[in-house]
Amino acid sequence: MTTERQGGCDCGNVRYAFSCDILSCYACHCTDCQTRSGAAFTLTAIIPKSEIRVTKGEPQEARWKIATTQICGNCGVTLWGIAPLVPDFALVRVGTLDDTAWANPIAHIWAASAQPWIRFNDNAKKFPGQPENPLELLELWTQYQSH
Prior knowledge:
Blueprint: E1 5-8, E2 15-18, E3 24-28, H1 31-37, E4 42-48, E5 53-56, E6 60-63, E7 68-71, E8 78-82, E9 89-93, E10 107-109, E11 125-126, H2 136-145
Parallel strand pairs: 3-10, 10-11
Antiparallel strand pairs: 1-2, 2-5, 3-4, 4-9, 6-7, 7-8, 8-9
């Protein structure tokens, strides 16, 4: 049975939920994510785009170099994005979810741009840049879940 997961922005104006399984979880160390988040990396969960339900408020769309994101117009928090490489999937910012205890990245993308003090989990795959086949992130999660 799939658990409903809920999340939202910092100010509480926008809330969302989904009731599907997580398809993957990865960390992105690209300089764009570092700049936009103000952090060393972003942690992302992949789910089918059709599963996202806005339960409160109305997110605003923001366009970045590699994705269109849904943000809170009040506090500016990025909630999820849609990338042209994988248009059927939502890339949910894990930090916006109410429960993140399950989050363990199975891959690190753009690892070549990682801060020098980052220590990678030996079990996670490292990609120096963007994976050639983004669906490999789904395959890695499936392998991880079966162990």
